[in-house]
Write a structure and sequence with these properties.
52% of the residues lie in helices and 15% in strands. By secondary structure, the protein is α/β, with parallel strands linked by helices. The protein has a single domain, classed as Rossmann fold, CATH 3.40.50.300. The strands form two sheets. It has a five-stranded parallel sheet, sandwiched between helices. Bound molecules: 2'-deoxycytidine-5'-monophosphate. 2'-deoxycytidine-5'-monophosphate binds next to helix 2, helix 4 and helix 8.
Length: 224
Protein backbone atom coordinates (compact mmCIF):
# COMPACT_ATOMS: atom_id res chain seq x y z
CA UNK A 1 0.00 0.00 0.00
CA UNK A 2 1.15 3.55 -0.72
CA UNK A 3 0.25 6.49 1.52
CA UNK A 4 1.11 9.67 -0.42
CA UNK A 5 1.78 12.85 1.54
CA UNK A 6 2.25 15.99 -0.56
CA UNK A 7 2.38 19.63 0.36
CA UNK A 8 4.58 22.70 0.52
CA UNK A 9 7.87 23.05 2.34
CA UNK A 10 7.64 23.13 6.13
CA UNK A 11 4.03 21.87 6.43
CA UNK A 12 5.24 19.09 8.73
CA UNK A 13 5.33 16.36 6.06
CA UNK A 14 8.54 14.72 7.31
CA UNK A 15 7.44 14.51 10.94
CA UNK A 16 4.00 13.27 9.94
CA UNK A 17 5.29 10.79 7.34
CA UNK A 18 7.77 9.24 9.80
CA UNK A 19 5.19 8.93 12.59
CA UNK A 20 2.57 7.45 10.25
CA UNK A 21 5.14 4.95 8.91
CA UNK A 22 6.12 3.92 12.44
CA UNK A 23 2.49 3.49 13.51
CA UNK A 24 1.52 1.48 10.43
CA UNK A 25 4.80 -0.48 10.26
CA UNK A 26 5.52 0.93 6.76
CA UNK A 27 8.79 2.14 5.26
CA UNK A 28 9.18 5.83 4.56
CA UNK A 29 10.49 7.52 1.40
CA UNK A 30 11.54 11.19 1.49
CA UNK A 31 11.58 12.20 -2.19
CA UNK A 32 12.69 15.77 -1.35
CA UNK A 33 15.95 14.27 -0.04
CA UNK A 34 16.51 12.72 -3.49
CA UNK A 35 16.15 16.12 -5.26
CA UNK A 36 18.40 17.66 -2.59
CA UNK A 37 21.03 14.94 -3.14
CA UNK A 38 21.10 15.65 -6.89
CA UNK A 39 21.43 19.40 -6.16
CA UNK A 40 24.37 18.63 -3.83
CA UNK A 41 26.07 16.47 -6.48
CA UNK A 42 25.54 19.13 -9.18
CA UNK A 43 27.20 21.79 -7.00
CA UNK A 44 29.98 19.38 -6.05
CA UNK A 45 30.71 18.44 -9.66
CA UNK A 46 30.31 21.96 -11.03
CA UNK A 47 27.26 21.10 -13.17
CA UNK A 48 25.29 24.20 -14.16
CA UNK A 49 21.90 24.38 -12.42
CA UNK A 50 20.19 25.36 -15.66
CA UNK A 51 21.63 22.53 -17.76
CA UNK A 52 18.64 20.16 -17.96
CA UNK A 53 20.54 17.48 -19.89
CA UNK A 54 23.58 17.39 -17.62
CA UNK A 55 21.41 17.38 -14.48
CA UNK A 56 19.31 14.59 -15.96
CA UNK A 57 22.45 12.58 -16.65
CA UNK A 58 23.49 12.94 -12.98
CA UNK A 59 20.04 11.84 -11.81
CA UNK A 60 20.09 8.84 -14.14
CA UNK A 61 23.57 7.61 -13.26
CA UNK A 62 24.25 8.59 -9.62
CA UNK A 63 23.07 6.00 -7.16
CA UNK A 64 21.02 7.37 -4.25
CA UNK A 65 20.55 5.09 -1.28
CA UNK A 66 18.93 5.37 2.11
CA UNK A 67 20.72 3.54 4.89
CA UNK A 68 18.73 1.93 7.68
CA UNK A 69 19.85 0.88 11.13
CA UNK A 70 19.11 -2.75 11.97
CA UNK A 71 15.39 -3.28 12.58
CA UNK A 72 14.43 0.36 11.90
CA UNK A 73 12.12 0.96 8.90
CA UNK A 74 13.04 4.66 8.87
CA UNK A 75 16.25 5.52 7.02
CA UNK A 76 18.95 7.38 8.95
CA UNK A 77 21.52 8.35 6.30
CA UNK A 78 21.31 9.55 2.69
CA UNK A 79 24.12 8.49 0.37
CA UNK A 80 24.73 9.67 -3.20
CA UNK A 81 27.52 8.34 -5.39
CA UNK A 82 29.29 7.04 -2.28
CA UNK A 83 29.04 10.34 -0.31
CA UNK A 84 27.10 10.58 2.94
CA UNK A 85 25.14 13.82 2.41
CA UNK A 86 22.63 13.47 5.29
CA UNK A 87 23.55 16.83 6.83
CA UNK A 88 25.00 18.51 3.73
CA UNK A 89 21.63 18.47 1.89
CA UNK A 90 19.95 20.59 4.63
CA UNK A 91 22.03 23.78 4.22
CA UNK A 92 20.64 27.11 2.91
CA UNK A 93 22.85 26.68 -0.17
CA UNK A 94 20.99 23.47 -1.06
CA UNK A 95 17.62 25.08 -0.15
CA UNK A 96 18.35 27.55 -2.96
CA UNK A 97 19.92 25.14 -5.47
CA UNK A 98 17.21 22.49 -5.21
CA UNK A 99 14.47 24.63 -6.85
CA UNK A 100 16.04 24.79 -10.33
CA UNK A 101 17.22 21.17 -10.01
CA UNK A 102 13.73 19.90 -9.16
CA UNK A 103 12.24 21.95 -11.99
CA UNK A 104 14.47 20.21 -14.59
CA UNK A 105 12.26 17.77 -16.54
CA UNK A 106 15.11 15.28 -17.08
CA UNK A 107 15.78 15.12 -13.32
CA UNK A 108 12.10 14.56 -12.56
CA UNK A 109 11.85 11.81 -15.16
CA UNK A 110 14.81 9.93 -13.67
CA UNK A 111 13.81 10.36 -10.03
CA UNK A 112 10.12 9.55 -10.56
CA UNK A 113 11.14 6.25 -12.19
CA UNK A 114 13.44 5.49 -9.25
CA UNK A 115 10.69 6.36 -6.72
CA UNK A 116 8.22 4.09 -8.52
CA UNK A 117 10.72 1.23 -8.40
CA UNK A 118 11.28 1.72 -4.66
CA UNK A 119 7.55 2.01 -3.90
CA UNK A 120 6.82 -1.28 -5.64
CA UNK A 121 8.97 -3.06 -3.05
CA UNK A 122 6.38 -2.88 -0.27
CA UNK A 123 4.24 -0.70 1.97
CA UNK A 124 5.47 2.89 1.88
CA UNK A 125 4.61 6.31 3.18
CA UNK A 126 5.98 8.57 0.44
CA UNK A 127 6.36 12.30 0.98
CA UNK A 128 6.93 14.93 -1.69
CA UNK A 129 5.15 17.37 -3.98
CA UNK A 130 3.83 15.22 -6.84
CA UNK A 131 3.37 11.82 -5.21
CA UNK A 132 -0.44 11.67 -5.46
CA UNK A 133 -0.54 13.37 -8.87
CA UNK A 134 2.40 11.88 -10.81
CA UNK A 135 4.46 9.25 -8.97
CA UNK A 136 1.67 7.12 -7.48
CA UNK A 137 -1.66 8.37 -8.89
CA UNK A 138 -3.16 5.04 -7.76
CA UNK A 139 -2.05 5.48 -4.09
CA UNK A 140 -4.55 4.08 -1.57
CA UNK A 141 -4.43 7.24 0.54
CA UNK A 142 -3.53 10.73 -0.68
CA UNK A 143 -3.03 13.62 1.67
CA UNK A 144 -2.21 17.23 0.83
CA UNK A 145 -0.79 18.75 4.00
CA UNK A 146 -0.41 22.48 4.38
CA UNK A 147 -0.12 25.25 6.99
CA UNK A 148 0.28 29.03 6.88
CA UNK A 149 3.69 30.29 5.65
CA UNK A 150 4.36 31.85 9.08
CA UNK A 151 3.67 28.61 10.95
CA UNK A 152 5.81 26.69 8.48
CA UNK A 153 8.69 29.18 8.93
CA UNK A 154 8.52 28.80 12.73
CA UNK A 155 8.62 25.00 12.40
CA UNK A 156 11.50 25.08 9.91
CA UNK A 157 13.56 27.31 12.23
CA UNK A 158 12.95 24.90 15.15
CA UNK A 159 13.91 21.96 12.91
CA UNK A 160 17.12 23.72 11.79
CA UNK A 161 18.01 24.46 15.43
CA UNK A 162 17.49 20.79 16.32
CA UNK A 163 19.49 19.55 13.35
CA UNK A 164 22.22 22.15 13.78
CA UNK A 165 22.15 22.98 10.03
CA UNK A 166 20.29 25.53 7.91
CA UNK A 167 19.24 29.09 8.68
CA UNK A 168 17.79 29.95 12.08
CA UNK A 169 16.85 33.49 11.02
CA UNK A 170 13.02 33.58 10.95
CA UNK A 171 12.74 36.34 8.30
CA UNK A 172 15.22 34.60 6.02
CA UNK A 173 13.43 31.25 6.39
CA UNK A 174 10.00 32.84 5.78
CA UNK A 175 11.26 34.61 2.64
CA UNK A 176 12.73 31.32 1.39
CA UNK A 177 9.46 29.45 2.03
CA UNK A 178 7.44 32.07 0.12
CA UNK A 179 9.96 32.04 -2.75
CA UNK A 180 9.91 28.23 -2.96
CA UNK A 181 6.08 28.05 -2.81
CA UNK A 182 5.92 30.44 -5.73
CA UNK A 183 8.54 28.49 -7.67
CA UNK A 184 7.16 25.00 -6.92
CA UNK A 185 3.55 26.03 -7.72
CA UNK A 186 4.34 27.75 -11.00
CA UNK A 187 6.95 25.50 -12.59
CA UNK A 188 5.94 23.90 -15.89
CA UNK A 189 6.76 20.29 -14.90
CA UNK A 190 4.66 18.75 -12.09
CA UNK A 191 3.70 21.97 -10.29
CA UNK A 192 2.73 21.61 -6.64
CA UNK A 193 -1.02 21.03 -6.52
CA UNK A 194 -3.33 18.63 -4.69
CA UNK A 195 -4.57 15.53 -6.54
CA UNK A 196 -8.33 15.81 -7.17
CA UNK A 197 -8.93 12.91 -4.75
CA UNK A 198 -6.48 14.09 -2.05
CA UNK A 199 -7.60 14.77 1.53
CA UNK A 200 -6.71 18.39 2.25
CA UNK A 201 -5.35 18.76 5.78
CA UNK A 202 -4.33 22.15 7.21
CA UNK A 203 -2.07 21.76 10.24
CA UNK A 204 -2.09 25.47 11.24
CA UNK A 205 -2.83 25.61 14.95
CA UNK A 206 -3.39 21.84 15.13
CA UNK A 207 -1.31 19.42 17.09
CA UNK A 208 0.69 17.27 14.72
CA UNK A 209 -0.62 14.19 16.61
CA UNK A 210 -4.14 14.94 15.34
CA UNK A 211 -2.92 14.93 11.74
CA UNK A 212 -0.98 11.69 12.31
CA UNK A 213 -3.97 9.84 13.73
CA UNK A 214 -6.25 11.15 10.97
CA UNK A 215 -3.91 9.78 8.28
CA UNK A 216 -3.52 6.42 10.07
CA UNK A 217 -7.32 6.21 10.24
CA UNK A 218 -7.55 6.87 6.47
CA UNK A 219 -4.98 4.13 5.84
CA UNK A 220 -6.85 1.66 8.08
CA UNK A 221 -10.13 2.42 6.27
CA UNK A 222 -8.42 1.95 2.88
CA UNK A 223 -7.11 -1.49 3.87
CA UNK A 224 -10.51 -2.78 5.06
O1 LIG B 1 10.59 18.55 0.91
P1 LIG B 1 11.92 19.26 0.66
O2 LIG B 1 11.92 20.71 1.13
O3 LIG B 1 13.09 18.51 1.20
O4 LIG B 1 12.08 19.29 -0.93
C1 LIG B 1 13.20 19.86 -1.54
C2 LIG B 1 12.83 20.46 -2.89
O5 LIG B 1 12.53 19.42 -3.81
C3 LIG B 1 11.65 21.44 -2.88
O6 LIG B 1 12.07 22.66 -3.48
C4 LIG B 1 10.62 20.80 -3.75
C5 LIG B 1 11.32 19.69 -4.49
N1 LIG B 1 10.54 18.45 -4.56
C6 LIG B 1 9.85 18.19 -5.70
O7 LIG B 1 9.85 19.01 -6.61
N2 LIG B 1 9.16 17.01 -5.82
C7 LIG B 1 9.14 16.12 -4.83
N3 LIG B 1 8.45 14.97 -4.98
C8 LIG B 1 9.83 16.38 -3.62
C9 LIG B 1 10.53 17.57 -3.52
Amino acid sequence: MIVAIDGPSGAGKSTVAKAVARTLGFSCLDTGAMYRAIAWLALNEGVSLDDNEALGELAKTAEISFVHEAGDPLPRRVIIAGNDVTEAIRTSEIDRAVSPVSAAPAVREALVAQQQRIGRLGNYVVEGRDIGTVVFPEASVKVFLTASPEERAHRRVRQNVDRGVGSIDYDEVLADIIRRDEYDSNRATSPLKPAPDAHLLDSTGLYIEQIISEICELANQASE
